[in-house]
Amino acid sequence: STRARGDVGSRVPLGPTESTTVITPREQLVLVNPGAAPVAARLVGYRNLRPDRRDTGAVIAQPRGALLHYRLVTGADTVSLDSVRFAVQQNGSAATFTSAAPAITISYQPTAGGFRTAVRGSVASAPAGSVLLIDLPSELRSVEADTVDDLRHLAYGFKMPLRGVASVSFSKLDPGEVRVDTGSFQWVSARNKYWLIALMQPVAQPGATNKPAGIFRDVIVRGAPRAAKIANAAYGTTAYPIVNGQIAFDLYVGPQSWQELHALGNDLENVNPYAGWLHAVVQPFATIVMRVLLWM
């Protein structure tokens, strides 16, 4: 079963961390070791609008720690990859993390889309039933002028094939409250007002079609303690079943641009279902507004 991050012990990183950057014309995705996970995305052409950070570049990150955390479950063993130091190899624009114990490889390959990265991996001799538990972001550092309004938009979203989008606002989760959504999901995500981190079924190559498939199993979210009335954090976890020792999903870290998300062909443009029947009209309009605000 999927276990939420708050239900396990604290992670124990091995000594100092090292970073590796995967660079595209549109963003710089920073990966951390130990962990083999993304820690931040520096966006090209977008500005931080906070008064104390104005005129600096926008960075999608948590206030602390990586954006994602992985735990490998094989049989009765669970290993937090935050405690594993990998050998790292960069080949062109791709980065590959390799460990002998546990025997796992994870690679990040940028795509032509710029904000999407192909995440691929393998686990040697993985027994049946093995899974990669993925902890979603629990917080997102605001880069907006109105940080309070940004916090109000924090939410998890996920979608089953041929079903509508489900959205869980952080503010709807009381501290300690647990919500479990069972089934198979073609994508899972965390977002604030304008930015999005999404894990998804690999996007089809140009000219090809992809039948929607639920590659993630179950989503469990839990409300975090609150220091004030506004919920600025929550915990979310999903599971990726490892079949024949293989891992394959895509990672999107970037703006909630209707044009960008619609091009992925997986209904991710509906990740923020705030407009009801007006959604198709409001989404493109909101994208235009976002462009104006971020490029001012």
Q: What is the distance, rounded to the nearest whole angstrom, between the alpha carbons of the first and last residues?
A: 47 Å
Overall geometry: globular
Widest sheet: strand order? 7-8-9-10-19-16-15-12-13
Could you tell me the mean pLDDT?
88
Classification by helices and strands: mainly beta
Largest sheet: 9 strands, antiparallel
What is the overall number of helices? 3
Find the count of extended strands (DSSP E, 2+ residues): 19
Low-confidence stretches: 6-13, 275-283
What do these coordinates show?
- It is built from three helices and 19 strands.
- It has helices at residues 147-152, 258-262, 279-295; strands at residues 18-23, 27-33, 37-47, 57-61, 69-74, 77-80, 87-91, 94-99, 104-110, 116-123, 131-135, 155-159, 165-169, 178-185, 187-191, 195-200, 216-223, 234-241, 246-255.
- The radius of gyration is 18 Å and the shape is globular.
- The longest helix has 17 residues, at 279-295.
- It is 9% helix and 42% strand.
- It is mainly beta and 296 residues long.
- Residues 6-13 and 275-283 have low confidence and may be disordered.
- A nine-stranded antiparallel sheet has the order 7-8-9-10-19-16-15-12-13, with no helix packed on it. Strands 6-5-11-18-17-14 form a six-stranded antiparallel sheet, with no helix packed on it.
Produce the secondary structure layout:
Blueprint: E1 18-23, E2 27-33, E3 37-47, E4 57-61, E5 69-74, E6 77-80, E7 87-91, E8 94-99, E9 104-110, E10 116-123, E11 131-135, H1 147-152, E12 155-159, E13 165-169, E14 178-185, E15 187-191, E16 195-200, E17 216-223, E18 234-241, E19 246-255, H2 258-262, H3 279-295
Antiparallel strand pairs: 1-2, 2-3, 3-4, 5-6, 5-11, 7-8, 8-9, 9-10, 10-19, 11-18, 12-13, 12-15, 14-17, 15-16, 16-19, 17-18
